[in-house]
Task: inverse folding
């Protein structure tokens, strides 16, 4: 069976809800799937355990800036995604070393873009996937966020048209 | 020590990574393709995500106590009120308080949360569009061997530390 984006999106949505319902990925709520937040938890957990001054010590325990679910041990979604995607690429023979052609997607530019995306995502409180998950959790601010993401992509498309 | 959530999340990630690679899943890419070439293949993924997550929350709230705050715009106010009582803040909850996650999580100012949503959402859409895909897609591309995406992930990880070290204190100083 060919996996289309619609099928994958539906499965992701159910997994996000099930992660909160059955696998204790809470608190905060609507945290089942999030790329930026889970990456933040992982990075902060590692940083706080290498340099304890980074984590705020409260009664002996290291409290990391991030979701309370990750205080003891961080969520490992990022590792899972990388392993799963490597398996999929290897099995279907799509793995190939490459670099994007256009200058704004060369590695040095992507480094700063990645940083800016992470800062914007944490300002809002989630990557696009968690924004959609929050919207499904019927949070009105997330709908505003989704609309602003669409506006941002629209402006970005105008810039891309100018650049190409 | 509750290890269920990390172990579950690694398997969740495995499934997501595999399916995401097969389907070329990307929400930002869906919006971009729609604007540029009117292609709805990826945009269907976004709508089916929201619909299925909503259906999942509606169904699972009857069997799992973890979803007791489900319609957030109705039940979220009670969560905030409880937290404020513990913090000694007097404020009345409103409908538009967000799910915890942004840097000023328990602030009673609804307007500040909306400012953050507008700024963050716009930046997220704009920079992701220039970078060529949402964070999830970049992870999948890194696993497919794109060197640009691997460097993106390094910047992405460092961004978290920069945010909590420099940007979050600034936001708190300005908005709280």
Result:
């Amino acid at each position: 069976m060919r996996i289309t984006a619609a099928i994958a999106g539906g499965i992701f949505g159910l997994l996000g809800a099930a992660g909160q319902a059955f696998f204790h990925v809470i608190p905060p709520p609507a945290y089942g799937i999030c790329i930026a937040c889970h990456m933040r938890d992982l990075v902060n957990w590692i940083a706080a355990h290498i340099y304890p001054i980074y984590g705020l010590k409260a009664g002996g325990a290291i409290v990391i800036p991030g979701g309370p679910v990750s205080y003891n041990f961080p969520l490992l979604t990022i590792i899972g995604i990388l392993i799963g995607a490597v398996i999929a690429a290897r099995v279907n023979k799509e793995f190939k070393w490459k670099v994007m052609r256009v200058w704004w997607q060369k590695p040095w530019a992507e480094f700063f873009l990645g940083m800016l995306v992470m800062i914007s995502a944490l300002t809002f409180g989630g990557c696009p996937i968690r924004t959609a998950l929050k919207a499904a959790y019927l949070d009105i601010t997330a709908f505003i966020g989704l609309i602003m993401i669409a506006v941002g992509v629209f402006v970005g498309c105008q810039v891309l048209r100018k650049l190409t | 020590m509750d290890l269920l959530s990390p172990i579950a999340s690694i398997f969740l990630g495995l499934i997501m990574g595999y399916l995401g690679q097969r389907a070329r899943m990307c929400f930002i890419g869906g919006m971009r393709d729609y604007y540029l070439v009117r292609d709805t293949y990826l945009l269907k993924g976004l709508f089916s995500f929201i619909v299925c997550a909503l259906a999942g929350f509606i169904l699972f709230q009857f069997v799992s106590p973890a979803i007791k705050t489900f319609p957030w715009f109705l039940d979220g106010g009670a969560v905030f009120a409880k937290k404020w009582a513990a913090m000694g803040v007097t404020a009345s909850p409103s409908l538009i308080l967000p799910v915890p996650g942004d840097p000023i999580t328990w602030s009673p100012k609804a307007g500040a949360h909306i400012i953050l949503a507008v700024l963050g959402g716009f930046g997220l859409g704009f920079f992701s569009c220039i970078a060529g895909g949402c964070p999830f897609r970049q992870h999948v591309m890194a696993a497919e061997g794109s060197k640009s995406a691997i460097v993106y992930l390094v910047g992405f990880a460092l961004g978290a530390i920069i945010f909590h070290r420099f940007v979050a204190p600034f936001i708190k100083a300005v908005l709280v």
Summary: Helices of chain A lie at 5-22, 35-50, 77-91, 107-124, 128-136, 140-163. The longest helix of chain A spans residues 140-163.
